[in-house]
Design brief:
single chain, alpha/beta, TIM Barrel, seven-stranded parallel β-sheet, 10 helices, globular
């Protein structure tokens, strides 16, 4: 599988979005562990998580604990796997709220490190802007976490171009990633993707296949992706991920998965190179 860069780390060009294994509709523990192990078998070396990937505030960190168990029980060396987690979301009663208070973020990062069983988190990202807290203050917490050695690299999520620039003015080269929603159904973050490409920041599309319950739209009978997939004898999901990879060398999609077969199929997209005419067909279809 081809690799791409996040800061000074080389990771697989396709990552694993582990969120579906811990939210509503999640699989049982055995299937979830098997899915993470299947990702590792397929050569995936980037796993995305967050402390808020859980049913509610009674099980904060469910996904982080699951990933830690999967890595611990894999039966082979996993020291090269980069686990990227996030802080700044809360799950009171199963709802989604935000907290960008610097003190909260620093405490959340230390709790995440403990759940992951690491001395320092490989990549820690501010999950979502909090309107009640100046963005610079929230990003400042990432700088302090870097200085204290709690995290090795810092990123931001759900950020605008302006917020990317503000974060970079605070963190400098220590800002290594931006994780925004991006898929054929949701291309409004193209400006952020292109900005990351100009700056050399890794861009991690979340829900790159459309999100939970929407991925089936990728295989619509008359879509350019499905037509190319039939000609190539691959899944339309691989075609979508290959298209995203072709947008810029900084793009690293993190498709969600809750079954081993899903991530095994998605991982194959890392080595699927679409030709220029196919890329034009997809671009024209999405206009």
């Amino acid at each position: 599988m081809q690799n791409r860069s996040i800061g000074n780390r080389q990771v697989s060009a396709i990552g694993l979005g582990a969120m579906p294994m811990s939210v509503a509709g999640r699989p049982d523990r055995e299937q979830a562990l098997a899915t993470i192990h299947a990702a590792l078998d397929a050569g995936v070396t980037l796993i995305d998580t967050a402390d808020a990937y859980c049913l509610d505030d009674s099980e904060v960190g469910h996904n982080e604990l699951l990933i830690a168990e999967a890595l611990r029980t894999y039966g082979a060396d996993t020291s090269h796997v980069l686990v990227a987690t996030k802080g700044g979301h809360l799950r009171p009663g199963g709802a989604w709220t935000v907290n960008g208070d610097p003190a909260y973020l620093k405490g959340a990062a230390k709790a995440s490190a403990a759940r992951l069983g690491v001395a320092a988190i490989g990549l820690y990202q501010f999950h979502r802007p909090d309107p009640a807290v100046p963005y610079a203050d929230s990003v400042g917490a990432l700088a302090e976490l870097l200085d204290e050695g709690v995290i090795e690299m810092a990123g931001i999520s759900n950020a605008s171009v302006e917020q990317i620039d503000l974060a970079r003015s605070i963190l400098g080269e220590r800002l290594v990633s931006v994780q925004n929603r991006f898929s054929p159904q949701h291309t409004s973050a193209m400006a952020e993707l292109e900005h990351c490409a100009e700056l050399g920041l890794a861009f991690l599309p979340w829900s790159p296949l459309g999100g939970i319950g929407r991925a089936s739209q990728v295989g619509a009978t008359q879509s350019a992706m499905s037509e190319i997939a039939r000609a190539r004898e691959v899944s339309p999901y691989q075609v979508v991920l290959a298209w995203e990879l072709a947008l810029a060398p900084v793009v690293i999609p993190i498709p969600g998965a809750s079954r081993p077969s899903s991530i095994t199929d998605s991982a194959l997209a890392a080595d699927l190179e679409l030709d220029p005419s196919e890329l034009v067909r997809i671009d024209n279809y999405l206009v």
